[in-house]
Amino acid sequence: MTSISESADVSASAMIGEGSKIWHLAQVxxxxxxGANCVIGRGAxxxxxxxxxxxxxxxxxxxxxxxxxxxxxxxxxxxxxLTNDVFPRAINSDGSLKTExxxxxxxxxxxxxAAIGARAxxxxxxxxxxxxxxxxxxxxxxxVQDFALVAGVPAKRIGWVGKAGLPLQQxxxxxxxxxxxxxxxxxxxxxxxxxx
Length: 196
Fold this sequence. Notes:
About 0% of the residues lie in helices and about 35% in strands. By secondary structure, it is an all-beta fold. It folds into 2 domains: about 5-160, Hexapeptide repeat proteins (UDP N-Acetylglucosamine Acyltransferase, domain 1, 3 Solenoid), CATH 2.160.10.10; about 160-195, no CATH class. A 9-stranded mixed sheet has the order 1-4-7-10-13-16-19-21-22, with no helix packed on it. Strands 2-5-8-11-14-17-20 form a 7-stranded parallel sheet, with no helix packed on it. It has a 6-stranded parallel sheet with strand order 3-6-9-12-15-18, with no helix packed on it. Strand 23 (about 170) and strand 24 (about 175) form a beta hairpin. The protein is globular and about 60 Å long. About 40% of the residues are buried.
């Protein structure tokens, strides 16, 4: 059953999937599309036309600016910011106030199962790969590979993670999830689950 707090501001043109929950003071703008079973935390912002797949979580005070696209199962931690302006300015070079027509929005794309840690910032346009993890406080300025664990300012790969979210451990030329036992192999600078 869908649940929307009385204090949330949800546009009538937003599409909210079955079973989704929108908590206190959250704002979901016009044309936004949330899949089934999404959770939008207190004070979070989902911009116009933003798309969330099924089972996404956008935690308290996160800012998801348009035209962001989140696939199924994406986790956005507290106070994360997904930007949308490469050259931000409040005014044009002639001093006039910028309007919607004065800039081209660019978005952040996040693939299935990826997680963005608390207070991380993703500088659009970037793509976060499937099952990747962005550490808390990181600033992502370039694309992140599938299964990559990135941290720092600017964010750099410091390891690999599996679908369970735990750092992978090396074992006999492969990478292994300590939780599930799933084995992964490196190829062309990336990682893939063996058997996929």
